[in-house]
Description:
The protein is mainly beta. It has helices at residues 28-33, 67-70, and strands at 4-6, 15-21, 41-47, 54-58, 61-65, 73-77.
Amino acid sequence: MSAQVGLDEVEVNSRVKVIQVDPQSRIRRRIMDMGIVRGTEITVSGKAPMGDPIELLVRGYNLSLRKSEAKDITVEVV
Length: 78
């Protein structure tokens, strides 16, 4: 089993599986409405030069999240 890290720490071109969305996150509901729930596989397809925002491939669509939003999502590398 891989170590659990925040989505903001994952390298580009890595596939990860969502472990949890932080229950204390102010944007938890919005993240979950976008399809990022426990068990979802995500591919980190790119990052801006300064690391913010992060581009993700989630359930067949591209999504960009700010680093501050991505840190609330705990994942493990697949």
